[in-house]
Amino acid sequence: MISKSELEEFFAAVDGDFPVRLSERVNIGEWCEKLLSNGTVCAEAIDGELAAVVAGYANNHEEKTGYIAVAAVKRNFRRRGLGAAAVSKFIKKAGDAGMETVYLYVHKSNGAAIRMYKGIGFKEVESDRTDSLRLSVRCGDIL
User: Fold this and answer.
1) What burial class does residue 51 get, using C-beta atoms within 10 Å of its C-beta: 0-12 exposed, 13-18 middle, 19+ buried?
2) pLDDT tens digit string along 53-72?
3) Residue 68, number of CB atoms within 10 A of its CB
4) How far apart are CA 61 and CA 11, in angstroms?
5) Which position among 22, 68, 87, 128 has the lowest Cβ density within 10 Å, counted as fewest Cβ atoms?
6) What is the pLDDT of residue 86?
7) Strand pairing of 101-107 and 123-125?
């Protein structure tokens, strides 16, 4: 289980890697608390250090839809498949929770993330956002 302080430290380390800083959009401490109490957090660690985190919600039972709010990998751990592994864990947990699909938004400038998501099986779906793509995957399509 990931502690709030570990999650806060991780997000502080990757905060500047987002097109719009995470800390400009949310209060990281409060958000970590919300994710840990109401959300789904999946992570990959190397030698005890959090290397990749995927977090969101898998509790929309009316629409049977999960949502990845954030996916990040620390710079020194990139290109090792850790992000894809954490995303796949999230999709599996969402499916186990009764979700049929998982969606996310990714900034159009983030080519590496877009390639990773599409490699996992995400497909682009209609969105009204101009700066981001909305991607979706059926939980059963991920092995």
Assistant:
1) buried
2) 999 999 999 999 999 999 99
3) 26
4) 28
5) 128
6) 96
7) unpaired
